[in-house]
């Protein structure tokens, strides 16, 4: 059987560039300058998470970057009325809906698409009608993919956190298999399947090799690598690893 393969996009999450600015309330590092370099080094999408507590990305960042991003803005947000109003006003190319808890360090799990199916259907419909491509950040589980399909979101992002943080080789293998199967099933359901969370230079290859995946969203590891190599080379190296995985 010939396996279908798509060009794999790289979405760069810039939240933690803003984190460095926010912890000292300085005007630097400049997100606009960062985005220019990131886009010049192989990013296909710029992702930013406007959290309820505004711990990193600020409203003004979304506003400023919206017309300046040359690739595409993916606004990550909780499915709240406040965020919907912002998205409808600024019309990013894409929105990724994520669960949010104030006390969490980062997005810790996928959206509960089973409990909130009806509300999410209405929520997504409003965004879709505004021309925004909606993505649901979900656990790599068949039932969650089926719910995403019923909700009508064209895109899902599979949560790779359990894979990335697996403690044993057995757990790693099990989580990788779960993502492979979910990617294949999502594709079969007609969904565009992305993945992200916890991906880094040492674990990206196996995920990038999954031929049906459309985009990987990666942030923390790239911003951390940038301290040593600069943000441009850090992005370029991730791009190189992803391309090599697809060619292998
Ligand atoms: N995708 C989603 C939906 C996320 O919430 C995050 C974290 O903000 C990422 C991708 C990127 O994760 P990381 O920073 O671990 O690469």
Compute the number of helices: 11
Distance between the termini: 17 Å
What's the mean pLDDT score? 95
Q: How would you classify the helix and strand content by structural class?
A: alpha/beta
The helix-strand sequence is: EHHEHEHEHEHEHHEHEHH
Main pleated sheet = 8 strands, parallel, barrel
Q: What are the segments in which pLDDT stays under 50 over at least 5 consecutive residues?
A: none
Strand order of the largest sheet: 1-2-3-4-5-6-7-8
Using only CA atoms, what is the Rg? Answer: 17 Å
The helix content is: 40-55%
What is the percentage of strand-forming residues? 15-25%
Query: What is the 3D form?
Result: globular
Q: How many DSSP E strands?
A: 8
- List the bound ligands: pyridoxine-5'-phosphate
Structural commentary:
With 248 residues, the chain is an alpha/beta fold. The chain is 47% helix and 16% strand. It contains eleven helices and eight strands. It has an eight-stranded parallel barrel with strand order 1-2-3-4-5-6-7-8, surrounded by seven helices. Helix 6 links the parallel strand 5 and strand 6. The structure holds pyridoxine-5'-phosphate. Pyridoxine-5'-phosphate binds next to strand 8 and helix 10. The site of pyridoxine-5'-phosphate (PXP) has 19 residues, from strand 8 and helix 10.
Short description:
Helix content is 47%, strand content 16%. With 248 residues, it is an alpha/beta fold. It has an eight-stranded parallel beta barrel, surrounded by seven helices.
């Amino acid at each position: 059987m010939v396996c279908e393969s798509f060009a794999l996009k790289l979405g760069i999450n810039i939240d933690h560039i803003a984190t460095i600015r926010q912890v000292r309330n300085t005007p630097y590092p400049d997100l606009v300058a960062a985005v220019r370099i990131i886009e010049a080094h192989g990013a296909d999408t710029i992702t930013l998470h406007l959290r309820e507590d505004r711990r990193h990305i600020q409203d003004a960042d979304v506003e400023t970057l919206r017309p300046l991003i040359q690739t595409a803005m993916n606004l990550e947000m909780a499915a709240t009325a406040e965020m919907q109003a912002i998205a409808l006003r600024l019309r990013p190319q894409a929105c990724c809906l994520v669960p949010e808890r104030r006390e969490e360090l980062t997005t810790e799990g996928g959206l509960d698409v089973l409990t909130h199916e009806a509300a999410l259907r209405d929520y997504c419909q409003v965004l879709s009608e505004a021309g925004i491509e909606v993505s649901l950040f979900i656990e790599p589980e068949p039932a969650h993919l089926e719910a995403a399909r019923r909700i009508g979101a064209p895109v899902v992002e599979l949560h790779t956190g359990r894979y990335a943080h697996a403690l044993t080789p057995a757990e790693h293998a099990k989580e990788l298999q779960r993502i492979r199967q979910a990617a294949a099933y999502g594709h079969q359901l007609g969904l565009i399947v992305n993945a992200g969370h916890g991906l880094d230079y040492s674990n990206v290859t196996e995920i990038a090799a999954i031929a049906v995946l459309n985009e990987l969203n990666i942030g923390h590891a790239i911003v951390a690598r940038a301290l040593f190599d600069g943000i441009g080379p850090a992005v370029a190296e991730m791009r190189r690893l992803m391309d090599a995985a697809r060619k292998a």
